Amino acid sequence: MTPAELHELEQDATTTVEIACRAIGCGRTLGYQSARETGELAGIRLIRVGRVWRVPTRPLLALLGYDDILPKHEAGAGPPRSPYGAGQCALHDPERTER
């Protein structure tokens, strides 16, 4: 990928599996196979919305060694943390009784 394409990647929170595969140098077939089997691509946890897989761009750029170009957040300025842990929400709380 060119520097201009990498700069475009950092503008969005997520990108497609095809673009992520091109960035890391693997084919899209292998990318989608990895997504289906593990929910990850090169160690990056993917986001699935319906039938669409999305790749978070921050971990992708960090994997490629471009984490130094990403803006740093001030302490406490990040998104709110879930009390259920990373990747969890109230719908997945095993102690939750009402449905």
Explain the overall architecture.
This protein is of the alpha+beta class. The protein has a domain at 3-71: Orthogonal Bundle (Arc Repressor Mutant, subunit A). It has four helices and five strands, in the order αβααββββα. It has helices spanning 3-9, 17-24, 28-38, 57-63; strands at residues 14-16, 40-41, 44-45, 47-49, 52-56. The strands form two sheets. It has a three-stranded antiparallel β-sheet with strand order 1-5-4. Helix 2 packs across helix 3 (28-38). The longest helix has 11 residues, at 28-38. Residues 87-93 have low confidence and may be disordered.
The major beta sheet can be summarized as: 3 strands, antiparallel
Number of helices: 4
- Fraction of residues in H or I helices: 25-40%
**Uncertain stretches of 5 or more adjacent residues:** 87-93
Write down the CATH class of the domain at 3-71.
Answer: Mainly Alpha
Structural class by SSE content:
alpha+beta
Radius of gyration: 16 Å
Level-2 CATH architecture of the domain at 3-71: Orthogonal Bundle
Averaged pLDDT, please?
77
Strand content: 15-25%
Tell the overall outline.
globular
Distance between the termini: 46 Å
- Give the strand order of the largest sheet, numbering strands 1, 2, ... along the chain: 1-5-4
Reading the helices and strands in chain order gives HEHHEEEEH
Q: What do we call the CATH topology of the domain at 3-71?
A: Arc Repressor Mutant, subunit A
Total number of strands: 5
